[in-house]
Amino acid sequence: MNNDIPSCESVHSHSDFVAHIRHDMPDETVLYDLAELYKLFADSTRIKILYCLFEDEMCVCDIADVLGMTSSAISHQLRLLKHSKLVTFRRDGKTVYYSLADEHVRTIIGMGMEHILE
User: Fold this and answer.
1) What are the residues facing 87 on neighbouring strands?
2) Dihedral sign for Cα atoms in the order 92, 53, 40, 84
């Protein structure tokens, strides 16, 4: 170990603060689930789908048409988004319409766009 670099203990101690953070730290499984949620946003196709749904609900065929992709590819991504509770759906006869699951998803997309456009 390099003796020129002081250890954290010799520089400062914030044991009360560290104990507070450690106490408030969510369970490992919750943090894992949070990381998995954010992984879904790491795929540009899924982001495009979510952006399509930002304004209103759409069927698979319309999303595929907007994105220039196959309905099968869109359906695969929608399954992942639905499983993670980012999108929801409703049936109208034989047509299934997808939409953002709730206001939280809309906020995540909106704030992300706002941040990168600053």
Assistant:
1) 100
2) negative
